[in-house]
Amino acid sequence: MVRTMLQGKLHRVKVTQADLHYEGSCAIDQDFLDASGILEYEAIDIYNVDNGQRFSTYAIAAERGSRIISVNGAAARCACVGDKLIICSYVQMSDEQARIHQPKVAYFDGANEMKRVAKAIPVQVA
């Protein structure tokens, strides 16, 4: 059996640019990519916390330390500057690997400052 698992996640990053006429993709600060394990040109799913839209594109690197999150091309219709996003990448692995897998999750504040990096998502309680 092959399972698709969360590999990397940027939790609540803020859109800093939306460029309809740029060639596709989502530009992400290289520090953010490193923290989450997302690679340049890797497929990503984006979940817009502010408007509920969900869409797919691929990651490209933005300048390290810039805090840039730029949604480009057609995807720019799905997010506006200031929107909060959850950006995820996934990996396929065997059932055995999946049972010990730990994703890389980076958490952010409202100014795209990375607050912490974790290898798990906290258990939700009532």
UniProtKB/TrEMBL annotation:
Pfam family name, one: Asp_decarbox
Active site: S25, Y58
Organism superkingdom: Bacteria
UniProt keywords, alphabetically: Autocatalytic cleavage, Cytoplasm, Decarboxylase, Lyase, Pantothenate biosynthesis, Pyruvate, Schiff base, Zymogen
Post-translational modification: Is synthesized initially as an inactive proenzyme, which is activated by self-cleavage at a specific serine bond to produce a beta-subunit with a hydroxyl group at its C-terminus and an alpha-subunit with a pyruvoyl group at its N-terminus.
Subcellular location(s) of the protein: Cytoplasm
Binding site for substrate: T57, G73, A74, A75
Catalysis: reaction(s): L-aspartate + H(+) = beta-alanine + CO2
Quaternary context: Heterooctamer of four alpha and four beta subunits.
HAMAP family on file: PanD
Name the record gives this protein: Aspartate 1-decarboxylase
Organism field: Enterobacillus tribolii
Gene name as annotated: panD
